[in-house]
Amino acid sequence: MKKAPIIWTTTLLFSISFLVAAIAVPWYAVAVGFGWFEIIATILALGYCGMSITAGYHRLWAHKTYDAHPFLQWAFAIGGAFALQNSALHWSSDHRDHHRHVDDNEKDPYSARRGFWYSHIGWMLRDYQGTTYNDYTNVRDLQKNRIVAWQHKHYLALTIATNVGIPLLLGWLSGNMLGMILSVGVLRLVLSHHFTFFINSLAHIWGKQPYTDKNSARDNGVLAFLTYGEGYHNYHHIFEYDYRNGIKWWQFDPTKWLIKSASYIGLTRNLRIVPEERVAMAKAKMQLLRAQQKAQLLPNAEQLLQLLEREYELLLARMQDYYQLKKQFVLQKKQALIEQYQTADFKQRYREFKYHLQQQHQHWQRLTAAFH
Ligand SMILES: [Zn+2]
Ligand SMILES: [Zn+2]
């Protein structure tokens, strides 16, 4: 079969930026040395690009796991262009296809079954999508979002303005133009690219599958560290509408922390989470499947399988009891809180009314006394 034609702009951009980051950046670090200004600016710019993709492109627009204030959306739209990963509209369209047809070599744009290279970067180097490249039927909702539509329309201008403008401006401020172009300009871009690409490649190859084995996605704490929390990809593929990827408090998910903190100041709202019960059930199901596979190989398989089945049913029943009661408990607590508030409110009003009455009483006494 004839290979799809190479997309030269992307191929050259990825290759040149990678070579500069791999050769010129270390050379400069040794020969001249980067200052604190460049190092801090690179880390901040890297975080801004990364989080615009994870919190903005991915969890806000592609999956709609929460709502965001326009101010935050503008910030993500500009940061996403700075990250140079195509427009939010295009990115989300590809990503929704990825979830819908995960591991399907024809329909998943970065199917992990086609190997590490293809899912990491190869899928962008050749025109594999052909005529379907501009098919945005799966993101009609986003086409109606004026910020997403604006970013899509002015994407090229925005990428140039941010990728050229920001390093030049910082270089002018610090007085070290070359150092800033190499660090914030090139190194930041290359790291930002590959950290995101790891989610499509490594996060489908390396790690554990605690929630589902129906697709290749994995949970991986090391990758979570490089990808602002997106490494918990097994959880994400089964519960894609959850604004969190790492659901445990100790799991490194700064994207989740950003979305949650922003909710306290009204920049985000309607944060969606999957009920605890469904997560626990998915996990138990996977444990059952794994244990069944092992038990089948043992001499007393029949007996063991029966035992597993029985205990699993019991576990489900216990879960149901517990979570049902927990729901009621939460509801009761809420009710008690309302009552408490009402009592406090009542006491306050009682004191106010009493005071008003006393005042009026005095007033009345004085008034009637005048008629004696
Ligand atoms: Zn996703
Ligand atoms: Zn994936």
Automatic annotation (TrEMBL):
Biological-process GO terms, alphabetical: fatty acid biosynthetic process
Segments passing through the bilayer: 12-30, 36-57, 155-174
Protein name (record): Acyl-CoA desaturase
Membrane topology field: Multi-pass membrane protein
GO CC list: membrane
Start and end residues of each Fatty acid desaturase domain: 39-261
Domain of life the protein comes from: Bacteria
Subcellular location: Membrane
Entry GO MF terms: oxidoreductase activity, acting on paired donors, with oxidation of a pair of donors resulting in the reduction of molecular oxygen to two molecules of water
InterPro entries: Acyl-CoA_DS, FA_desaturase_dom
Pfam families: FA_desaturase
Coiled-coil annotated spans: 291-325
Alphabetized UniProt keyword annotations: Coiled coil, Fatty acid biosynthesis, Fatty acid metabolism, Iron, Lipid biosynthesis, Lipid metabolism, Membrane, Oxidoreductase, Transmembrane, Transmembrane helix
Record family assignment: Belongs to the fatty acid desaturase type 2 family.
